[in-house]
Design a protein that fits this description.
heterodimer; A: mainly beta; 1 helix; 5 strands; about 10% helix; globular; B: alpha/beta; 5-stranded parallel sheet; 8 helices; 10 strands; about 15% strand
Chain lengths: ~70, ~260
């Protein structure tokens, strides 16, 4: 299936969880925020949120800024 | 000599200086500059994770979260909707309700969009955020932001990153006279230590800066200079300066002069 991750199409295993996707990409789940189809997910929900074809997902983090 | 603390949304911060974390040559210089500034709060931006770089270093590895509060910003947002979305993501990333709200209305000057700023402030206050809006040095907008429930108002001294120092001291004085129930923190435009001292001498509750420190030839040294300037300016404000006079007033006794 294809999801849109950070604005780009990406192949993902069907029903993959947000946590598994983060881990597969080497992203530490403790320091990111995740938005799924426009809604912010709570960190505790990463493990039970499964993705579907066409889902729009954002992984964001803190960077330097003023 | 203590200069009192900066209280925002019921929480006290020992330093009246808030510093940014952008534009440093590297994370280590940033870490040392934050340390030298004595800041107890630092701003951070919220951006997409770069998925092409696996396991890169994080900014957060260089910030002592036990002593320093993160203030996520909504920099780069041009609409209330974008800013609200970014604020919500920042809250989840940092697990704190503080947000430095920016809604920009003009690309070249980065001046705030008053309408969008007010709208986003109202939405975020309703959602429980402690909103610190970056605003013009405009009393009417500042009052509306306060009335909308902002936890502070943050008027600019000059355009972001310009280093021009305070361009409209009279506006800042008026604002400080009128806005008494939430902190007024001057945000943006400070170029060097004297600019920060003047802001604090005027009576601002705090000052927020990034480029003035990060862009200096020696950011760590400038961070120390800013710390001293903010403390000196605040002390001078609390001490109460002498009135300005056109003519001389002798400092030594006029009696007993040897003639």
């Amino acid at each position: 299936m294809t999801i849109i991750l950070n604005g780009e199409d990406r192949e993902a295993a069907p029903d993959i969880t947000v946590l598994a996707l983060l881990e597969s990409l080497g992203v530490a789940p403790g320091r990111v925020a995740v938005e799924l189809n426009g809604d912010v997910l709570r960190r505790a929900d990463f493990v039970r949120s499964t993705l579907r074809d066409g889902d729009r997902v954002e992984f964001v983090q803190f960077v330097g800024g003023g | 000599m203590q200069t009192g603390t900066l209280t925002i949304a019921g929480r006290s911060y020992p330093s009246r200086l808030i510093v940014g974390t952008g534009k440093y040559p590297d994370f280590d210089v940033m870490r040392r500059a934050i340390e030298a500034s004595g800041a107890s709060m630092v701003t951070v931006a919220v951006r997409r994770v770069d998925l092409s770089r696996r396991g890169g270093e994080s900014l957060l590895d260089y910030i002592d979260s036990a002593r320093i509060t993160l203030l996520p910003n909504t920099a780069g947002c041009f609409t209330a909707e974008e800013a609200v979305r970014t604020a919500r993501l920042g809250r989840e990333a940092g697990l704190s309700d503080l947000v430095k709200l920016e809604v920009i209305g003009d690309e070249r000057t980065l001046f705030p969009d008053n309408e969008g700023l007010l709208l986003a402030t109202r939405i975020l206050v309703k959602e429980g955020f402690a909103v610190l809006p970056y605003t013009n040095d405009d009393l009417v907008v500042a009052k509306r932001l306060r009335d909308a429930g902002a936890a502070a108002v943050m008027p600019l001294a000059a355009p972001i990153g310009s280093g021009l120092g305070i361009q409209n001291p009279a506006n800042l004085r008026i604002l400080l006279e009128e806005i008494r129930d939430v902190p007024v923190i001057v945000d943006a435009g400070v170029g060097t230590a004297s600019d920060a001292a003047i802001v604090m001498e005027t009576g601002a509750d705090g000052v927020l800066m990034n480029t003035g420190i990060a862009g200096a030839d020696d950011p760590v040294k400038m961070a120390r200079a800013m710390r001293l300037a903010v403390e000196a300016g605040r002390l001078a404000f609390e001490a109460g300066r002498i009135p300005k006079k056109l003519h001389a007033r002798a400092s030594s006794p006029l009696q007993g002069i040897v003639r």
